[in-house]
Amino acid sequence: MTTELKQAQAATQFALRPATFDDVPAILALVEASVRGLQANDYSPTQIDASIGSAFGVDRQLIADQTYFVATPVDDPATLIACGGWSYRSTLCGSDAMSETVCGTPRSASTLNPATDYAKIRAIFVHPAWARRGLGSLVLKHCEEAAQAAGYTRFEMGSTLTGLHLYSLKGYVECSRSSVPLPNGETLEIVLMQKSLPLQ
Fold this sequence. Notes:
Elements lengths: L2 H11 E5 L5 H15 L6 H7 L8 H6 L2 E6 L8 E6 L31 E8 L8 H15 L4 E6 L4 H6 L3 E9 L5 E10 L4
């Protein structure tokens, strides 16, 4: 199946809506399932254990800003199968339990300038039972379009090692790598990636 066909099917099979605070428990469960099921080839079990709830979790600021989204099957709107968002604030990545600088960017609620700054693509996760059906691409496209509607033409993210292939295919370029401290003393490698839209 071609990438284009997979994306077209995903757009008809899945629905996206803004996340609410009532969704937080289900999002946390989705994130844990995604990390444990899809990132085991890139991070060790102890890294994964320590990252859940710290590097990987929920940033409630995005929910408050209505820039975080959840995906459901069209015929089962109560089941969350993917999530992700974008942000017009300075924080690059991580849950709201983190206080560390990531990829040289400290956590901050300060707002960005669309004319000069990169919108942040944040925390895209897919449940492993629904992987490889175009959901990651669907969520990413939705976030980019929402950021574009707010005036942004450049995007950046703190990608996991697992996400590098997909984001590279979508036009993101690796800029640098950073080791995020974890509560157990280990670190998690995160990759700063950026993308700029062509000038109109």
